[in-house]
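User: Round two. Same drill as before: sequence, then structure, for each protein.

Assistant: Same drill it is. First protein:
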Amino acid sequence: QHSKPITALYAAKKQKKKASGGGGGFGGSKAKSTPPSVTPASADIQSLEKQWDNFASITDLEIFPPGDPESSDYRHFIVADVFVRIGPEDKDSNPGTGWFRTGKLVAADDIDINIAFALQRGLILWTAAAMWPQLAAKGQLAAAKLMQVGFMPPSMNMADESEPALDDEESEDVQIPQRVAIKDDVSLKNIGFRPDFNPKGFTYKRRERSAMKAKKSGLDEIMDI
């Protein structure tokens, strides 16, 4: 039923061991090149609000595009479950932590999911460090240099503050985003990210509350017919 989005998301599964998703700090980008006209999402509260709003607006809180692809109002998008961990300090050492479920990311229209990760990587790492104390145990700067972003196909699963890291078996399914070139016509408005829960001291779900009200209103209309 959902083979197309999952196939697109997993197009480079055989290359996941070779890809690198860590290093560079919160502001780092793992894209091969970022055109001067394209600015990655910044790692701060304002940027998180914008990208969270984008996620809700693009997906309407769905994990797969609803509707008929042949319809004129259909909009294609791909959602991925996002994970973050402290990676190994070198090729001979073990990761510093397991993978922590952090949120969901979306790439709309024809944007490569890897580009969406590259442009929001700093924001994702900054958010994950605020969500999971385990990721900042070595100190924020040291942790940021070793942090890695990974992903799985979209699911309805969402973490809370008490959820442990993935076990070894579950971690085998986590993929690392590929390094890809970014086109100069990519807009942050067509990608989004939302955390599974609010980082400490942060409360924000404005666009999602509006979307839920709209869904309830639509259901009420159906029930009245």
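Second protein:
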Amino acid sequence: MKIDDVLEAAKRAKDAGSTRFCMGSAWREVGNKHAFKRVLEMVREINGMGMEVCTTLGMLTPEQAKQLKEAGLTAYNHNLDTSREYYPKVVSTRTYDDRLNTVKNVREAGINVCCGGIIGLGEEDDDRVGLLHTLATLEEHPESVPINALVPVAGTPLGDKLLARGIHPTWDDMVRMIAAARIVMPATMVRLSAGRLEFSKEAQALMFMAGANSIFTGDTLLTTPNPEFNEDNAMFEMLGLEGKPPHQPHRKSPYIHIDDTIFTRHANAMASASQ
């Protein structure tokens, strides 16, 4: 993806009220991809706009994490997805320890860790507890913990399996997961993430009351739709939620931290060009 296009998207996000801009790729790892140099330039430019900057690029080496820090990266997203026990049933491209090592590299580079998971993968309640236990017993709690609700996509192996079994996360599943995350990680930004369109405004209000104090906003999150800016702004006004300025420590609810995400079709184009 062209750098100018990314910067234009960041400007639109800032004008709409976002304080952090997140860029994602579908890479397994950064490796030796030439596009990483462009990512570093994007980070520098967006940081220069006064926005916080987050990326999710797959596995990182310590040196790559250091380069991102020097470019001005605020946070790095690398989710654990689920418990260690359930993980091999849904992911085969990298191990659980691979993910934990990347989180370690990010933290040691001085970058804020954004690390959470997904509910609705077919896991049990014990797996959700296991995920939160792993996050809460890291050397430091993540700066932010995204809680995603899986939206099964027909035509994908996992999506077809879940749809056939009628498995999907409910609003009360999300409320319980958010509340538990808030209890065990009291200073963390608990981020209401993918799958929000599946829930009513009333359900989302309960999620904020349960402890969510951050959202992802933008047209699309990875592969699933997301509410538009004006819809979110109307909801915040209705609920009396106030946005947090960038580069400032968060206080407590009802402060909301609004994110914007460059979605995967952009990131895939960038990754393809480098290979």
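Residues 35-48 form the longest helix (14 residues).

User: Perfect.
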